[in-house]
Amino acid sequence: MEKTPQGTSVGVDDPYQFVERCDHLTDDGRCRYAAEHARHDPEFAAERRADDLRCPAADYEARRASEQSTGERSEPGDGEWEWSDCPHFRARNRDRECVRCGLEERRRAHDDERPLLEEHHLEYRDDDRRELSHEITVYLCRWCHAKVHDSWARVDDDASPDPEAIAEAEGRRSDEQAEAAFSTAAERYDEE
Predict the structure, then answer these.
(1) d(Cα 121, Cα 2) in Å, to the nearest integer?
(2) Read out DSSP for 82-117?
(3) Can you give the pTM of this predicted structure?
């Protein structure tokens, strides 16, 4: 199982299993990084521009997704990469719910209370084993995050939210509903 630099578990064997797509990938399969950040890696940008900014990893993922119906696992072909081959790959989860138990985030505006969800890094740089350093993150609720780092729990476990997590989320939901409740001016003045 993958580990943090401190040696605690991140809860997955292969972080790339949790990747849907690269953050730099456009809807038409082009590499936004090569187009917008060419000055950071001119060689990479030149290679991508020579191929009309085509993302080789997206091509492979698309082919693999179409082949999943047959149950076959293909290898990258000529000019194709896996996500892990791209030097500028980044995948940050955008869904505001825990990937392990499904608890949804409930934040209140102008409040400094601790969020229910925390960003959980699945990929850490390991100079001895990998040249590339990718950012792969998902959201875990505070309770699942602690279980993954401090015990045997895995990110892909079929888990339900902790009772404490449900109580915290419901308390916030009640506060939201109370804040949105309508009261007439007469009712407000009667309270004073």
Answers:
(1) 11
(2) -GGG-TT-EEE---SB-TTT-PBP---TT--PPPSE
(3) 0.76
